[in-house]
Amino acid sequence: MDKACQSYRMLLSAYADGEVSAKERGQVELHLSSCPDCRARLADLKALSASVGSHLRSQAEAADFSGFADAVMRKITPERPSLTERLRIGWQEILTYHRTAVVSSLVTAAVTLAIAVPLVYRLAESSAPSPEMIVKSLRLEDPNVQPVVMNMGDGRTLIMLVNRPESEGSSEPVDLGGKPPSGGEL
Amino acid sequence: MNCRSLRSPARFLALFFLLAAPSAALAQSVTLKVQVASVSSNGTEIDPALKQMAQDFKRNGLAFTNFKLVGSENLNLAPGQSGNVKLPNGNASVTYVRQAGGKLTIKISAPAVTTEVDLDRELTLGVGEHGGGKLFLIVRK
Questions:
Q1: Does the model's ipTM exceed the 0.85 cut?
Q2: What is this structure's pTM?
Q3: How buried is A152 (Cβ within 10 angstroms: 0-12 exposed, 13-18 middle, 19+ buried)?
């Protein structure tokens, strides 16, 4: 091996890996074109490199990476705090960075409740049916009159005595319209 | 009163009934407002106290135009107690029978009619005739 080959063989490995400058690559290729030993050496280096690369790829493909991501995440994720702790931290962050929004929301909710609750209560109260008057018993002294029961509305009831028509012998009360009181037993 | 003295159950119960009894008696008595009205078709006078009655009658198709207040009084009654009301044609008695489940049961005895009702808010009861018109007893809670 002459001196020139020695200096180029130092570069052959880098050349095989494409890690030489353009000037060095030109010089190496010029030498290779004239030196069968160095070409053979270069061929050996490329074969070795390809063999090592193939071996590493096959090893990498055979490796099991299924739990790799979880293992990495377990190492980089800190311990999960308790629910109360997370709520406390979250609430502190909200109060720190969104204080105005929180206060205005609470005020709005309070005002809404203050208006809505009495309104709903009043509506429920007004829609509740009022207990109607129940006539439990009724006795008339004069057989020629009969009772007429009339619901006047708003919890007011009228029991009026009217003369019985001569042709009528029944003692049933006369309903003059309106809503009769419930459960009346006359 | 020392709190220690209330530790005895008997003393506590005695104090409870001492405080509760008068309030329970007050809660049981009721005050009924009673009016006597003479209603006819002769005239067009409406006593201010009977304005609501006149409106109710008109709204329900009754043709009376004259509403005269004959008498008015408040009856404060305990359960079982009766109050008398003077009518132009005699007397009427109103008896507070009982109160249960928010219903007030009263009994009215008048010359022409005797009735017992669970009163809602107001009862207008015909109790006979007087002066060419009709007499009504109005009982209101």
A1: no
A2: 0.50
A3: buried
